User: What shape does this take?
Amino acid sequence: MTPEIKELSDGLYGWTIPQPTGDSILYLGREIRRERTGVHARITIAVNNATLEYDTFNIWRSEERGRLAKAAYLHLEDTLVGKTYSLPTMRRDLAAFCDVLPTFHEETRLREDIPDIDIDAPIIPLRIILDPYVIDGAGTTIFSPPGGGKSYTGLTMALMIATGRSDIWPIKETRPVYWINLERSADSVGRRLQMLCRFFGIRGRHHGITLLHAKGLSLTTIQRKVRRWVESHPTGIPFLDSISRAGQGSMNEDEVANRITDILNSTASTWVALAHTPRGDSDHQFGSIMFDAGEDIGIKLSSETRLIGDTQTLGVSLIIMKANDIPKGQVSYLAFEFADGELQIVRGAEKGEFIKLVLEQARSDEQKVIDYLSEEMKGTATKIAAATGVHRVNVSTILTAGKRFIRIGRDKDGVWYGLKAETF
Assistant: This one.
């Protein structure tokens, strides 16, 4: 029997088999992903929409399918439908379902298109949501050292988007927002949102933000809940605080970075995530270079604290370090003013108001390598990366492709480079 699979909702597939008793056996598949060992999925076996058993496993393995079928059939063997639908039949149908499911999923999700391009028509415009940092269909990452003001800045962005206010940045579209809190206690996030709403005069639930408090849980654990919210709010934007708490493994592993990015991209077309930076490098988020590759917009957040009397002002700059569809280097400034530990004012700031932020505007990675070699005279990609905080892969590319560098030797530590004479 060839399974007649149908897509029941986004990413959920089912095959219904009517029985002579008037009942229906239902096979469900979701969370389908190809791993190195095979295809993994969450499979559910049900009768009349009542779950018999479910499991997440490698659906290419016969023994694992057999265990699920046996566990499900224990609930059927003493029933009327169990007398007409045997365990061998369930095993056969489960195998057929799992055999067809990956291809059906890929054909459903990966729709081909040969577009008819009209070169005389106006170019399709970008749909800017929060200018210039959040764009429809793009993933934005905001990174800074711990305590730099990411959460306050992210919550302010979320509040502006959800309410349509342009107090700080131009808001082009109002969208529902889902704040995913993996970082802090519910009280801490609630307090910050309360202080922001108090300043902007937003009462009750008119802030338009849904908070998901999941401190201590992994991104995989909450993915289905986030996806359900996105399904019910098709234009909604999840904000993740933070990538560092995603719980997927070592952040330095390319596979982990790709998995986190894939989860975000498969859950929502537009998202914003907060991230931390490594020690010694504030120009990139901590972890694999694949995090940089996976984002559409990368924003470096820098901050400066100033104390005048009883007022503490946190100055923040936001500079676009990576952008796929908009110019890089765009920068804005804002200030958070606190008194007695409570937020009093949020406002845009002038460029010269916080001198440190102006001086710290990003040097290019190449310039960091040049500065290092100017001082140390020579270095390997590994040594330069450790000293400058620039990812080793980037350093190696800069040294081999750049016209300012010369290879001067090789030993047990690696290939050594210096600067050409005209560079000094």
Q: What stands out?
A: DSSP finds twelve helices and 18 strands in the chain.
